[in-house]
Amino acid sequence: MNDRFFPTGKPRAVQGGIKARSSRGAIAQTWWGERFIAVLERAGIGGRLQRGKTYARKGQVISMEVTAGRVDAVVQGSRPKPYRVRIGAPAFGKAEWAAVESELAGSAWYLARLLAGEMPADIEEVFSKVGLSLFPKGPQELSMDCTCPDWGVPCKHVAAAIYLLAESFDDDPFRILAWRGRTREDLLAKLTIASGGGAPAGAGAAAPESPDVPLADLLDSYFTLQGALPGPSPAAAVGILVQAPDVDVTVRGQALTALLAPAYRDLAD
Amino acid sequence: MFAVHGFWSGDGLSLWAEDSDLPTSTSSQAVRSVRPHPFAATADALTGLLPGTPTTAELQLPSQRSAPLDSPELLRVNPRRATRVDPVLSSWRVPAVRLEGAAGLAWLTDPGQVAARFGASVTHLRDLARFARDLAERGRVLPAVTPTGTGGVAHWRPVLQGPDALAQHRLVAALPPVSRAAGGQGDARAIVDEALHRLTDAAVRERLAEAGSLLPARRGRRPTVEPVADAWLGALTGPDGRFAAPPDGVARLAQALSPWAQLGSGEDEPARATFRLVEPPADATPAVDTPQPWRLEFLLQSTTDPSLLIPAPQAWDGGGPLRRWVDRPQELLLTELGRASRLYPALATGLRSARPDHLDLDHADALEFLTVAAPALDEAGFGMLMPNWWRRRRPLGLRMTSSTPTDAAATEGRFGRDQVADFEWRLALGDESLTDAEIEAIAATKAPLVRLRGQWVAVDPEQLRRGLDFLEREGTGRTTAAQVLALAATHPEDVDLPLRVSGIEADGWLGALLAGTTAEQLEPVAPTERLRANLRPYQERGLSWLTFLSRVGLGACLADDMGLGKTLQLLALEATERDGTDEAAEHLPSLLLCPMSLIGNWQAEVRKFAPHLRLHVHHGPQRLSGPDLTDRLAETDIVVTTYSTATRDIDDLEPVSWNRVVLDEAQAIKNRHSRAAKAVGRLQARHRVALTGTPVENRLGELWSIMNFLNPGLLGSPETFRARYAIPVERHADTDAAVRLRQVTRPYLLRRVKTDPAIIDDLPEKIEVKQYYRLTTEQASLYQSVVDDMMDRIAGSDGIERRGNVLAAMTKLKQVCNHPAQLLHERSAVGRRSGKVIRLEEIVEEILAEDDRALLFTQYAGFAELVVPHLAARFGTDVLYLHGGTPRAARERMVERFQSDQGPPMFVLSLKAGGTGLNLTAANHVIHLDRWWNPAVENQATDRAFRIGQKRNVQVRKFIGTGTLEEKIDTLLEEKAALADMVVSDGEGWLTELSTGDLRELFTLSEGAVGE
């Protein structure tokens, strides 16, 4: 509204900034991403997020860090010095997390889904059971600051950061928990200990694949097969699309998976 | 002779070849630089041999100072001398041809007839291409995008999980070093990945070519800039995946698709979750069932050491020995279970505890897991430990027992297909009919999984109810034998019954036919006394079987091994049947189709075994047509013709009502689209017979073609046959489908192999076969000009000079019969210029199909040097060659190699060098490529294989060109057999004593010598 009081020069280009991947449609693709956006919408700022979209897509966000209770982002605007953006929400305390963790420890389901990249649908109940809310209840719990001179709340820099934050929650649901005060590592350590597991082993991970034998050592069998060829494969059981995680790609308004389905039928014929 | 090798680089396949005719060494001693490969096939030779764009490649090959070593596939008539110097790697430049993506896939899938031998690198790539096609057909692919400077490339990548990841590992491990020999090549894994990726992409595009673009119709106005995703999706079909788009748009698309990138990318976790289904204890009766008697246990299995299986409780306690590979087993187990719950949502219940280690299932859950979830989890790469019985499960089905009434009146005197049969249906488990008590017990339990006779059986209560209803209403009745046979051949899915048909059983001849035991059970049919042969017991059984199927009116495929006398059995059938029919019956001729090269054989065999049968050869430019043909048929028993003549004259042959149509070497109609296959389908006959030693040469579709000729419609349409039998059996090694196909075809197929203990005692130790063939037109005209020229010379000479001329004439004529190139001293491709070589290829094909080994004798080094590389290239195998100049040590090595278990299947020997002192009992075939008019010499050679230590029967073949001097001298020898031993004991000299008139008679080509 008051943008015009300030120079509206083009934002400076950023090398290697974080770029939003969705090119159209809703910001968040998962239910938990949507829940996060819904909180903002209840705060009456959902609609204004669109302002940050172009910024987010261009890669104006230089960096973003999620820590307990806050998200710090650095966003390049039209001025030489990038702006600092902070999105705050109160993190849960030690005691509160202990209560949550003891609930989570009773059922491996939550962690299993989280590790497989999904926020389990019923995890909100776990928090509400101990009197907490996983997502900020409303605008009063959220604080948004930016060092730019723009008065609009949120300004496009904050909006761009929120936009990317929603995407990063989609990618890794553990980040929401980190924002609320528990990193993935802490949580895993607490939960595996809580469920009786030992400390992580010090031994190295899988041995690297042995590199190829040098050609010069194979002169005796240079022209021959070095092992048996694979035999015929068993028939297919399920389509790959069932197994594939969701992707956010639409073509002419239709979901990619829907458009690909007939191709997989043609392949089988 | 060429040996073709290949390697994959970048987007395409490169092929190069060695040529054994080129000199073996280079003059360049510049060991450190890249030298031209001295015996690599030239660019010209290569483009004549293979498709693709000419190019060159630099290869590192094991070499001596002045030359690379030969690949084992390269066959030299005169082997290079072995040196004691250890080989080193040197760089060589070779001409090559390059085939990009789709063209590479096409060539690897079907290279066609290439006059060359393929090296292991080509074999490897061909298997890789097969795998790529297979992945495409099974939909184990996902689309992806790779950014380029001006946009992106849309491509399909293979998704490798579980068994497919294993297959890829094997391809990497098996890669021959020469496949990595091209300059700047990556490691084995990178090469296989790249080739697989590119070939899979090509295979997907090929399969989607028909359907066209995946892009949906545009709604609304056309945007000014085409969205990146549109361009990408559009580029996923069509020949080229490249598309233009702004780079950041492509990057965003790649980001959006990133969740797919990890799936089946071939990067393994150190361990994977494995599921074990544990069945309820055996003593639990349905009545005292716990509500959830099945247990699905979770385990972790090490990828590095698959034998290491850790049950979930142990993983929770720290992982035990798995700790060697896995840092945090608990976390890995949970991640895996979380991933699995996506495919198997019911798993959630099992995860609702602090340390989940199993899931309890009721019968319905267990059934759902077995049928739906397990295959999906297996394919997604999870481990599956299923109860053993599940793999051998037999479904609940219906089984028919039919019996033919013994009461003669009830059959109304009818026999054969129209014969009446009573039938009864029963519930059955596989082959076993269920008792009434068992049926009651199943009906009483409401569970979908029921334990029955030691196995668990899936029972759909609704289906069971309808099945029992059916048994009540239509469980018994009366039908005809023809209908029972038709039902037995029908695929279970096509039978309109509430449960699948699990078996059909019958008594009497019908039962024997269905069980495939007809030949053993029949009353033997005595051959007519006019047949001039003593049938061996198995041949009598064959005759009985043919006679029986003929009487019942069913088409028969006699598929005995070569050398067991299919021709004789067929002639016995014709002779015996014709002898038995009364005079009043209508006379119908039989039509026999065979390859051109076999006409002479049939003529000779009829002459020998059943001279009273009236034979007419319908072949050649002077053949009859129209009324002339009809008149001739009225007084003919058997008409012999070739497939191509019959195809050409089908309009003349179609209206004839034949007694029987016989296809010899029936694989000639293996391609159902071929003109010959279509033509034979139009012939009208009372009975049909196919003779073949190899009913399935390459693909099951060939069997379909033969069976469809014999009994049209029996195996359904070609499309359903492909879907139900060919694809499951060929591509997925599905044993159920294979067993079913065997069941369906066995009433109509009789196959005896010569290694069968029941046959082997019946066989003589040595079978001598005269192998007739016909000259090609080129051979015939060459033959004629040699005769003209030499007869002039003989007539104009006497004494020693005349003798010399006679012997020279003989030699030249024998050479023409072998191959024109031998007489003309040409070094050109063998091609299809010699009737003898064409026939030889057919015979070798059968010998190899039966996994046998052969000795091939010739008197002429020139012919051996022609045949050895040709056979090696044509059949992709080593061919040993021993001649007078072979050093003693090499001789011994060759003999040892031939006699070893994995020895080469063919050994060419010069008659003189190989005549004595060798023990070659690994061979059970002896082929005399040309004749030595001295039986003693031939017999001595034959005895190489036929010696102490020979455990099998030996088949001896002598080539005889119809109408040539080969045939005439053979006849002469036969007629004077007693005399011959004495007269001709000193070689071929006796021939020179013949008068000029006799010689002219002997040399002149008689009628019927030329093929088409």
TrEMBL record, chain A:
<dbReference type="InterPro" id="IPR007527">
    <property type="entry name" value="Znf_SWIM"/>
</dbReference>
<keyword id="KW-0863">Zinc-finger</keyword>
<dbReference type="Pfam" id="PF04434">
    <property type="entry name" value="SWIM"/>
</dbReference>
<keyword id="KW-0862">Zinc</keyword>
<keyword id="KW-0479">Metal-binding</keyword>
<feature type="domain" description="SWIM-type">
    <location>
        <begin position="128"/>
        <end position="166"/>
    </location>
</feature>
<protein>
    <recommendedName>
        <fullName>SWIM-type domain-containing protein</fullName>
    </recommendedName>
</protein>
Automatic annotation (TrEMBL), chain B:
<dbReference type="InterPro" id="IPR027417">
    <property type="entry name" value="P-loop_NTPase"/>
</dbReference>
<dbReference type="GO" id="GO:0004386">
    <property type="term" value="F:helicase activity"/>
</dbReference>
<dbReference type="Pfam" id="PF12419">
    <property type="entry name" value="DUF3670"/>
</dbReference>
<keyword id="KW-0547">Nucleotide-binding</keyword>
<dbReference type="InterPro" id="IPR049730">
    <property type="entry name" value="SNF2/RAD54-like_C"/>
</dbReference>
<dbReference type="Pfam" id="PF00271">
    <property type="entry name" value="Helicase_C"/>
</dbReference>
<dbReference type="InterPro" id="IPR022138">
    <property type="entry name" value="DUF3670"/>
</dbReference>
<feature type="domain" description="Helicase C-terminal">
    <location>
        <begin position="839"/>
        <end position="995"/>
    </location>
</feature>
<dbReference type="InterPro" id="IPR000330">
    <property type="entry name" value="SNF2_N"/>
</dbReference>
<feature type="domain" description="Helicase ATP-binding">
    <location>
        <begin position="547"/>
        <end position="713"/>
    </location>
</feature>
<dbReference type="InterPro" id="IPR014001">
    <property type="entry name" value="Helicase_ATP-bd"/>
</dbReference>
<dbReference type="InterPro" id="IPR001650">
    <property type="entry name" value="Helicase_C-like"/>
</dbReference>
<keyword id="KW-0378">Hydrolase</keyword>
<dbReference type="InterPro" id="IPR038718">
    <property type="entry name" value="SNF2-like_sf"/>
</dbReference>
<dbReference type="Pfam" id="PF00176">
    <property type="entry name" value="SNF2-rel_dom"/>
</dbReference>
<keyword id="KW-0067">ATP-binding</keyword>
<keyword id="KW-0347">Helicase</keyword>
<protein>
    <submittedName>
        <fullName>DEAD/DEAH box helicase</fullName>
    </submittedName>
</protein>
<dbReference type="InterPro" id="IPR050496">
    <property type="entry name" value="SNF2_RAD54_helicase_repair"/>
</dbReference>
